[in-house]
Write the structure tokens for this entry.
Amino acid sequence: MFILENFLFYFFSFLFLGAAIAFIYLIINPLQIRWAIIQARRIAAKNRVDNIPQFRNAYHTLTTARYDREAAKLWKQLDEMI
């Protein structure tokens, strides 16, 4: 009985861990990229940086965005502003 309880505990622990990683990868990361795109659009439209930490966060998030042409274009615009 003790072995079965341990097995169930580890099984559900790994299941929960996998669900947490999937949630971060599939939900949180795209939301972060969308936020960075919105912020980068605002910064590029003003053509000046008002909030340095916000600029840095958007810049670094756009740097890590994959397979998103708009993110790449905005990153290049922000890179030219530095």
